[in-house]
């Protein structure tokens, strides 16, 4: 029966470096247990023998023809290391301590030594399946907006992949790290030996906090899809479909404002407990851009002429004045932000919807910046 990375749809075992619990890397990092896996990496808790601290070792897959997300992430951290900044948002980004390469059968594997985290916000919401309350949402947004203000204004970095998987909770209780290592030593995780070289381990979770410790505070992580620079031409799509900004859909040039659109859609996940742009897929599960754009029209109105004129592709959906013309492809649904918000009422609802609308605008330059959003009346 497949476990962990073996369950991935396009799993190719030779692309994953064969890490074993107990391995020592760089005469320094000793693997204590497996924390997780993804399409482009595996993550391991390691003890740094030089300072007796625990770190996370993220080992990338090796894809000969393509740069991996871990390679891109390393370049982002290299870029960040060159900045001399006192911006408070910098401390709200996961820290990189070290990096090195391993040579595997398929080629080079980039390894990042990172700050340990408790769990992702996605995992927290799965364990506690209730949407955020208003104080928790506001605290999370203030931290995320500070991190984005630093990235956008001081580092010229666009994250492009803001989602609950990439927001992690800090560790308030450091004893959880040693306890994890002890539990792995005392009760080894299930594993499957494939051959003399390769063993696939099942990931282990940290125990829950004790002794009055909480779940930690949100930190922005995973820069595997991030881009450096103020402006980017259209090209390979960025952003998951449900968070994709309209300028990306139409293959226009884009910049940091795509993160602001993404944030608006992410807020809905956190607060309303469902995707704002969830109903944008066809019967086979593929992205339907007409349904997506029709839903945008319902929620934020028709695009201005200036937006329509920025791409020839827009004429498939809009006339020159911005009116929807793709009626045969998708109908504009009878919904609004006001009708979809079921948690607030009165003046707080008005302020919240106004806050949302300031992020969800057709023209990227009309979206409020992270710094401006930090001063929004609803967040104060």
TrEMBL record:
GO terms for cellular component: nucleus. GO terms for biological process: regulation of RNA splicing. It holds the Pfam family Pkinase. InterPro entries: CLK_kinases, Kinase-like_dom_sf, Prot_kinase_dom, Ser/Thr_kinase_AS. Keywords: ATP-binding, Kinase, Nucleotide-binding, Serine/threonine-protein kinase, Transferase. SUPFAM superfamilies: Protein kinase-like (PK-like) (SSF56112). One of its GO terms (molecular function) is ATP binding. Residues 29-379 form the Protein kinase domain. PANTHER family: SERINE/THREONINE-PROTEIN KINASE DOA-RELATED, SERINE_THREONINE-PROTEIN KINASE DOA. This is Protein kinase domain-containing protein. It comes from Penicillium alfredii.
């Amino acid at each position: 029966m497949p476990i962990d990375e073996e369950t991935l749809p396009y799993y190719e075992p030779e692309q994953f470096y064969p890490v074993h619990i107990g391995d020592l890397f760089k005469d320094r990092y000793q693997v204590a247990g497996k924390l997780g896996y993804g399409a482009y990496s595996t993550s391991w808790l390691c003890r740094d023998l030089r300072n007796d601290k625990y770190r996370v070792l993220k080992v990338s897959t090796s894809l000969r023809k393509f740069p991996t997300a871990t390679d891109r992430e390393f370049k982002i951290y290299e870029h960040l290391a060159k900045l001399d900044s006192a911006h408070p948002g910098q401390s709200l980004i996961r820290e990189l301590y070290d990096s090195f390469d391993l040579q595997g059968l398929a080629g080079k594997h980039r390894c990042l030594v990172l700050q340990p985290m408790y769990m992702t916000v996605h995992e927290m919401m799965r364990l506690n399946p209730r949407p955020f309350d208003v104080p928790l949402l506001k605290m999370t947004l203030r931290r995320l907006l500070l991190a984005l203000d630093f990235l956008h204004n001081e580092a010229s970095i666009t994250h492009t992949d803001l989602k609950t998987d990439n927001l992690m909770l800090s560790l308030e209780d450091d004893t959880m790290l040693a306890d994890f290592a002890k539990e792995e030593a005392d009760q080894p995780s299930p594993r499957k030996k494939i051959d003399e070289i390769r063993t696939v381990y099942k990931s282990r979770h940290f125990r829950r906090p004790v002794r009055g410790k909480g779940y930690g505070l949100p930190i922005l992580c995973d820069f595997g899809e991030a881009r450096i620079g103020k402006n980017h031409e259209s090209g390979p799509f960025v952003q998951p479909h449900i968070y994709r900004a309209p300028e990306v859909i139409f293959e226009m040039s884009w910049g940091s404002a795509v993160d602001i659109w993404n944030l608006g859609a992410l807020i809905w996940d956190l607060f309303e407990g469902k995707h704002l742009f969830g109903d944008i897929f066809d019967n086979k599960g593929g992205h339907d851009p007409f349904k997506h754009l029709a839903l945008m029209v319902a929620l934020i109105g028709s695009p201005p002429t200036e937006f329509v004129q920025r791409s020839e592709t827009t004429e498939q959906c809009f006339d020159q004045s911005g009116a929807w013309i793709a009626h045969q492809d998708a109908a504009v649904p009878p919904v609004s932000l006001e009708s979809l918000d079921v948690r607030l009422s009165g003046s707080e609802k008005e302020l919240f919807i106004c806050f949302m609308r300031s992020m969800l605008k057709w023209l990227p330059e009309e979206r409020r910046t992270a710094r401006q959003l930090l001063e929004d009346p609803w967040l104060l």
